[in-house]
Amino acid sequence: MFLVVTATEQEMRPIAKRLAGQAGWLPLVAGVGCLESALHLSRFLAGHHEPLQGIINCGVAGAFVGAGPGLLDLCLADHETQADVGVWLGDGIVDFETIELPIHFPLAGPLLDRARQVFAHHGLPTWTGPFVSVLAVSGTLARGEARRLRYQAICENMEGAAVARVAQAFQLPCLELRVVSNMVEDRDLSSWQLAAAIERAAESLALLLPALRP
Predict the structure, then answer these.
(1) Which residues of 142-162 are buried (b: 16+ CB within 10 A; e: fewer)?
(2) Domain of 151?
(3) Number of separate domains in the chain
């Protein structure tokens, strides 16, 4: 049994439609942003006593210009970072000098390897690399470039690090699967493909999930 986590009902609806009648998964809409995701996911797991094979975090993301992925590309995280933690000095963020905080969460492992194998078998191209989770999405190309360079990341989202951290605390494998809805550039909503990205994420998950069940 896998727990499928999305940030919004909008992202969960096509997943539920495509997986209707299929066993082996549970849905959880955990909310937008790391605080809501951490709260609702932790509360669910604390009250759920049946064994879980892992958590699949599914949704959309903004891809950094020059990092590789483009619109509607499928991306898998091998690492998550809670970005924007540190000291703001006006021209960027630097790490705390005296405090070490857990902000980096590896996601490489058998679940990621299996997902890549399944997608490759079906001829579905994927990008794999570091993701960053942010409190405020990047609304300018310059802000996105700063985050890309600081973390060597391919895309940004608002919940992945929280889901990865909670999964780590509950000793559950975690897979993060996202489809690019927009490029991280000077904000222009007319260029976004949010609805198409949500549908493609659901389609990709529906292809993957049966291959993950024992």
Answers:
(1) ebbbbbbebbebbbbbbbbbb
(2) 2-212
(3) 1
> Does the pLDDT of residue 195 top 70, yes or no?
yes
What average pLDDT does range 142-168 have in this prediction? 94
- CATH number of the domain residue 74 falls in: 3.40.50.1580
Q: Token pair for residue 197?
A: 């990205």
Amino acid at 1: M
Residues 39-76: tens digit of each pLDDT? 999 999 999 988 999 999 999 999 999 999 999 999 99
Report residue 142's pLDDT band, with 50, 70 and 90 as the boundaries.
confident
Q: Is the pLDDT of residue 37 over 70?
A: yes
Contacts of 27-33 with CB under 8 Å at 24 or more apart are 28/3, 28/4, 29/5, 30/5, 30/6, 30/159, 30/163, 31/7, 31/159, 32/7, 32/8, 32/158, 32/159, 33/7, 33/135, 33/158, 33/159, 33/162
87: burial class by Cβ within 10 Å (0-12, 13-18, 19+)? Answer: exposed
